[in-house]
Task: inverse folding
């Protein structure tokens, strides 16, 4: 193997950047803590929903249990796959010779990065086709794990919708008094009501989980609506808020679904472990034939 040359021009010509993925013996606390907190919330909602179903026997009990189990399984399964999948440039060869228009230099990672790749200061690494940093799961949403994020969002939204529906009746039964000041503050500040001794522990648990279900449902619905629009247009959250650029990655709704969810996009919502290969490598992206052109600079 030839000796390393300190010539700057030759180094630029043959430079190949390779970022090695180091296996960690333990989870990064920045990932472990939000995942544990999210897991506790998911578990508490799941247990309460199962309790509500079992405490109200009827003809639809088995159906509700099966539906709840299916939704929870998909939420947890997609969360696990999301965390296990690496959307960053770690372990990816970025060859200097293939650099073209749109490549930028990341001073934090000290390497050139391809288009749609942006640095995340929470993850401290550049992410391929970065969408945003998911605070609840402690990782960025990018090229390789967007499918699992979107499926978690869809199944979480449906599960919280079911939980909100089941909680509505039992919550009113616990209050016994309709919507007065007592019930209003219990719904708004359940911890304060518990500390001051205004409610029992069981009433607090139901109120807290009910709050979690309602807030979580609205949160998931808003994100589901946003990402459905982005998915349809083949755009990321960063690109959406940045506004029009020189590149237009909208290849039509069907091709956009394939680019983000994989070639078997129509099956990914059924099961987290269904194989659905994502076309491309997260480095090179096809632009629309009628890509819009703008004269203004797109540097941010």
Result:
């Amino acid at each position: 193997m030839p000796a390393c040359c300190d010539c700057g021009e030759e180094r630029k010509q043959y430079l190949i950047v390779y970022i090695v993925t180091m296996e960690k013996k333990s989870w990064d606390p920045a990932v472990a803590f939000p995942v544990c907190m999210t897991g506790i919330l998911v578990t508490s909602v799941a247990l309460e929903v199962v309790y509500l179903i079992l405490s109200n026997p009827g003809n639809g009990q088995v159906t509700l249990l099966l539906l709840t189990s299916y939704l929870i399984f998909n939420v947890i399964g997609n969360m696990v796959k999301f965390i296990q999948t690496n959307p960053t440039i770690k372990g990816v060869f970025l060859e200097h010779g293939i650099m073209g228009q749109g490549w930028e230099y990341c001073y934090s990672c000290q390497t050139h990065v391809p288009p749609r790749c942006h640095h995340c200061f929470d993850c401290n690494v550049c992410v391929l086709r970065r969408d945003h940093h998911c605070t609840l799961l402690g990782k960025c949403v990018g090229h390789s794990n967007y499918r699992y994020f979107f499926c978690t969002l869809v199944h979480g939204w449906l599960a919280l919708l079911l939980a909100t529906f089941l909680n509505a009746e039992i919550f009113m039964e616990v209050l016994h008094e309709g919507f007065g000041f007592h019930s209003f503050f219990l719904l708004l500040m359940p911890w304060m009501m518990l500390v001051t001794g205004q409610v029992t522990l069981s009433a607090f648990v139901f109120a807290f989980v009910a709050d979690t279900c309602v807030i979580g449902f609205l949160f998931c619905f808003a994100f589901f609506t946003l990402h459905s629009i982005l998915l349809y247009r083949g755009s990321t959250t960063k690109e959406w808020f940045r506004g029009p650029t020189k590149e237009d990655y909208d290849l039509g709704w069907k091709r956009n679904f394939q680019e983000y969810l994989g070639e078997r996009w129509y099956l990914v919502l059924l099961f987290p472990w269904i194989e659905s290969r994502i076309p491309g490598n997260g480095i090179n992206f096809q632009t629309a034939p009628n890509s819009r052109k703008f004269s203004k600079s797109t540097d941010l």
About this structure: The mean pLDDT is 80. The chain has nine helices and eight strands.
